[in-house]
Amino acid sequence: MASSIFTHCHSSPSSTTAFFLRRRHPVHVGPTSLRFFSIPSSPPSSHLLSLAASATEASAKVIDGKSVAKQIREEIAAEVSRMREAVGVIPGLAVILVGDRKDSATYVRNKKKACESVGINSLEVNLPEDSTEEEVLNYISSYNDDPLVHGILVQLPLPSHMNEQNVLNAVTIEKDVDGFHPLNIGRLAMRGREPLFVPCTPKGCIELLRRYGVSIKGKRAVVIGRSNIVGTPAALLLQREDATVSVVHSRTSNPEEIIRQADIIISAVGQPNMVRGSWIKPGAVIIDVGINPVDDPSSSRGYKLVGDVCYEEAIKVASAVTPVPGGVGPMTIAMLLQNTLNSAKRIHSFE
Ligand SMILES: Nc1nc(=O)c2c([nH]1)NC[C@@H]1CN(c3ccc(C(=O)N[C@@H](CCC(=O)O)C(=O)O)cc3)C=[N+]21
User: Which residues form the signal peptide (predicted)?
Assistant: First the structure.
């Protein structure tokens, strides 16, 4: 198993530009399985990470997103009951799913399960693929007005006949738990302004760094990818944390040279095993957002999930790396729950 993924890293095309061809969001498939690496029992509680650690295979840490996410879900569950007991309010998340994409259905199911696990109410509407934009807008409008709903999530991607911008703009910023409303992104970009919500995946990346004691201030950070939902907000967040940030994308010349200068790398491009060991500065910390299915005849599903970063190479050079699966993915859902809880607290002035 481990050798097949190793082979995959080496059989990947070596040209950088070939990897940067545009692609849709990584496709989510199947249940979590941690097969390729040993996971430490729990994340360090204090600042144990040494960025200057000599780069040997044994010294690299696996950043265990699955276990951090579990810890965060427990904290959220405690807050949800405290709020329910104190003011009788249960946070509610409404999820709007349009069409029958298999990966989207899986994501929505996982979000619903996660809500149940912490005591958050979840409402779900599944509209047919050929629904009109107006029908979606009507649902958004009724959830905007519904006092039992504190967060609204429109599962992306939407069918191509809908205007994503119109739809996302319709979610009231008070309930925009995805943090995708332009007003929330705009505030994220401006110094001295505070967004009501920060997008879940980038927020999860920063939370992982924080809980593993990786300091960001004054560090060189490189974000690979410039999507609205991950790359761009991740770069804005790192900058707010006082990193010096570069964004590498499909039109960047010499991406490897820029990436090699990074103390912290966040990769969100959706290209399997694109970032090679030789692109990584010894001791760097790597947050791998990509969740890419690749063929794997030895797996019962016929595929396995790999990140944007060649894990077996990275683990030898970096001081810490997030695995795929079990890294950023579970954190995204934990941050969605946190945003929903915080929204209910804000709406009900509960501290
Ligand atoms: N409005 C909207 N908000 C989103 O946040 C959103 C979206 N649309 N569309 C799709 C993407 C993708 N996404 C993931 C969430 C969790 C995992 C996750 O938990 N993955 C696990 C399981 C992987 C597996 O084994 O299948 C892991 O990485 O360990 C992955 C991907 C949220 N998205």
Answer: none
Q: Which two tokens stand for residue 148?
A: 């039992």
Distance 332 CA to ligand 1 centre (A): 7
Cβ of 32 less than 6 Å from ligand 1? yes
CA distances in angstroms from 344 to 86, 334, 349, listed in the order given: 13, 16, 8
Which residue type does 78 have? A
Tell whether 213 and 322 lie within a shared domain. Answer: yes
Strand partners, 150: none
CA–CA gap between residue 272 and residue 26 (Å, rounded): 10
Ligand 1 center to 170 CA (angstroms): 23
Domain count across the chain: 2
Helix residue ranges per DSSP H, the chain: 2-11, 16-19, 65-87, 102-118, 133-145, 164-170, 182-189, 200-211, 231-240, 255-259, 311-317, 328-347
pLDDT digits over 87-102, tens only? Answer: 999 999 999 999 999 9
Q: Does the residue 2 lie in any domain?
A: no
Q: Is 70 a catalytic residue?
A: no
Distance between CA atoms of residues 238 and 307, nearest Å: 21
Of the candidates 61, 64, 66, 155, the residue annotated as catalytic is 155
The model carries a pTM of 0.87
* CATH number of the domain enclosing 211: 3.40.50.720
Domain that holds residue 46: 15-68+199-328
Q: How many C-beta neighbours within 10 Å does residue 315 have?
A: 23
* Whether residue 155 has its Cβ less than 6 Å from ligand 1: yes
Quote the ligand 1 centre to 292 CA distance (angstroms): 11
Domain co-membership, 24 together with 47? yes
**Predicted ipTM of the assembly:** 0.95
Residue pair 243/264 in contact (Cβ under 8 Å)? The answer is yes
pLDDT tens, position by position, 237-259: 999 999 999 999 999 999 999 99
Residue 28 domain-assigned? yes
User: Which residue, judged by its Cα, is nearest atom 18 of ligand 1?
Assistant: 329
